Amino acid sequence: MKQFNHFYQQIASNRLSHWLNTLPGQLTHWHENNLHGDYKHWQKTLDALPSVDGNSAIELINSVKVGELGDLNNGEFKRLENLMKKFKPWRKGPYHIHGLHIDTEWRSDFKWQRLAQHISDLSGKYVLDIGCGSGYHLWRMRGAGAKFVVGIDPTQLFLMQFNAIKHFINDDQVHLLPLGVEQLPELKAFDTVFAMGVLYHRRSPIDFLYQLKAQLVKGGELVLETLIVDGDENTVLVPGERYAKMRNVWFLPSEQAMCAWLERCGFNNVRVVNTDVTALDEQRKTQWIDTESLQDFLDPNDSSKTIEGYPAPKRAIFIANA
Ligand SMILES: Nc1ncnc2c1ncn2[C@@H]1O[C@H](C[S@+](CC[C@H]([NH3+])C(=O)[O-])CC(=O)[O-])[C@@H](O)[C@H]1O
């Protein structure tokens, strides 16, 4: 279980040291339960990734990019492409790795652009991203100056994708841990907590908001992004079995209802900084996923509705202080 030892050593001497009371046990348990099938296969794929000699330029401010086309010879480049494709579906990105464009299903950079101007300066900050997927925004947070960046996401494939990217962008201040939000103790240690695209997957959204608050230092900033619907402060949509073909969608509040929930949970200075109907150029099928995408989740005759007849995905970004 060496893979997290370096993380433990780092936090032992920083403000996250009290996490060591619970974390090693949880990750050991995770490891014991994930040693089967796909994991071994993916680990071999990771081990086979080519390495580039010398230092390559890393760009994390405007995109997530390392090196240039030509850093690898043709054979190695082809190997890189084939190995990276073994980690399909690539949902969140895009990444540019030595000239290989991993054109992910989502343009996660669009979301970053929508929020970047509204958040507090991340310079020197401890930052947590809950439900970080493959970790695309972790790199952008680091690019924005964060000192120590931790993402959590329970989906094993996303950890593998993150490790594949980290193989090339070897920054030891950026980490992804395979945990769900419900496994976090009250750390009260992060200056900024991001929770984007996760609230609607939670069956208890109010408990979720308390869990987020428990990760922040007093006065720290929450950046929460979620699906919303039109309506007043009493409007919340709880869809039937599926919403946009997703099974695990529970609560879609209106902007005003979401603000009221945040205030009710003790957050201050609650505001909505952006709303946006998800467009077909932000979530679309590419050669890096084999499954359907947004176009297939909408009513073919009326793109303002999902295929089930609900309002099409509209997202809002909320900022608040603990
Ligand atoms: N209990 C849980 N705890 C933490 N994460 C979870 C949990 N359950 C699921 N997830 C994770 O939450 C992420 C939601 S995707 C948002 C990605 C990124 N933030 C984005 O804003 O682009 C949105 C979407 O695809 O609907 C997935 O990576 C899950 O594995």
From TrEMBL:
Entry keyword annotation includes Magnesium: no
Enzyme class: transferase
Assigned EC number: 2.5.1.-
InterPro entries: CmoB, Mo5U34_MeTrfas-like, SAM-dependent_MTases_sf
Catalytic activity: carboxy-S-adenosyl-L-methionine + 5-hydroxyuridine(34) in tRNA = 5-carboxymethoxyuridine(34) in tRNA + S-adenosyl-L-homocysteine + H(+)
Record keyword tRNA processing present: yes
Cross-referenced CDD domains: AdoMet_MTases
Record-level Gene Ontology MF annotations: transferase activity
Residues that, per the record, bind carboxy-S-adenosyl-L-methionine: K92, W106, K111, G131, D153, P154, T155, V181, E182, M196, Y200, R315
Entry superkingdom: Bacteria
Keywords, alphabetical: Transferase, tRNA processing
Family: Belongs to the class I-like SAM-binding methyltransferase superfamily. CmoB family.
Subunit architecture: Homotetramer.
Entry function: Catalyzes carboxymethyl transfer from carboxy-S-adenosyl-L-methionine (Cx-SAM) to 5-hydroxyuridine (ho5U) to form 5-carboxymethoxyuridine (cmo5U) at position 34 in tRNAs.
Protein name: tRNA U34 carboxymethyltransferase
Source organism of the structure: Colwellia marinimaniae
Annotated gene: cmoB
